[in-house]
Design brief:
Blueprint (H helix, E strand, L loop, with lengths): L1 E5 L2 E3 L5 E8 L8 E6 L6 E6 L6 E3 L7 E6 L4 E6 L8 E7 L11 E5 L2
Parallel strand pairs: 2-10
Antiparallel strand pairs: 1-3, 3-8, 4-5, 4-9, 5-6, 7-8, 9-10
Length: 115
């Protein structure tokens, strides 16, 4: 299994970023996929997840209305569109299968929100 996150960077408060996660080594289309983040000194937390077929989504309260998770089963890729970014969104962002991380974590992608 391989999970490769990309799209992070430095952005000003109020800005936007789109993260991508390319997955391989498992049947992507049959798994719920999720995004998580870990800020310095904090536990990793679930940010959003999306169903395998229904596409039903769930969001953490902290990002609801600002972040959108989506997936492209043909490309084995899950996305996280992040709008109206805040300094407290600064973290390393990871994707995984399932809600709690069913596979080994990838390297993540750093998102820094700062002026």
């Amino acid at each position: 299994v391989q999970l490769v996150e990309s799209g992070g960077g430095l952005v000003q408060p109020g800005g936007s970023l789109r993260l991508s996660c390319a997955a391989s080594g498992f049947t992507f289309s049959t798994w719920r996929m999720s995004w998580h983040r870990q800020a310095p000194g904090k536990e990793r937390e679930l940010v959003a997840d999306i169903g395998s077929v229904s596409g039903r989504t769930n969001y953490a309260d902290a990002v609801k209305g600002r972040f959108t998770i989506s997936r492209d089963n043909a490309k084995n890729t899950v996305y996280l569109q992040m709008n109206s970014l805040k300094p407290e969104d600064t973290a390393v962002y990871y994707c995984n299968a399932g809600r709690s991380g069913s596979f080994d974590w990838g390297q993540g992608t750093q998102v820094t929100v700062s002026s």
